[in-house]
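May I ask you to comment on the folded chain given beneath this request?
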Amino acid sequence: MRLLAALLLLQAADRPQIEAECRAILEKSKDPSQRGDAHFKLAEFDKAVAEYEKMVELDPSLEKSHWRRGIAYFYAGRYEKAAHQFEIYNSFDNVDRENGIWRYFSQYKAFGKDKAREGLLKYAKDDREPFPDVYQLFEGKRTPDQILEKIKSAKIDDDEREKRRFYAHLYIGLNFAVEGKAEEALPHLKKAVQNIWGPASGYGPNYMWHVGRLHHDLLKKN
């Protein structure tokens, strides 16, 4: 299983292959969901936003739950729109701290760290690991080392550990990036991209693996 995951990672990280697959989708598909994802993976964020907005126009029931639109808004530099998307998502799912993290990032970019921390969404219910601990990073209650050490020492199987490390490195790296600390961000984003769990998992984790890949590449270019 881990060998297969490693092979999938090598395929997923092949930038020319990613571009070719996305261009093929854009040439053949009229589905705005597929087209939005393809544009996003190509770092064509404004075009991704347009396709995701078209999805909501065609099906208004997606208005609150369309987290991909929020992430596309963020990377298109439309931070207040992104923050609003993640805020209304919370009325759709009030457990998912990953959504709260993206609202924090969006508010940070739009209004600064103090306002972003003041506006952190509050969660009363349990969430999947490692998000309860990762969320405390943004509350100032945990450090990156504490989060990673807890994952290292947890009594869990290898696949679960790899999953938790993926999300931890992804969001530690993104947090450093949002704070303008590219040198600190890059090692964590690189570890997220090298993680074998993300590209071998379902749709949502795979999408977030691409988020890590894209942000890593954007920082390297700058």
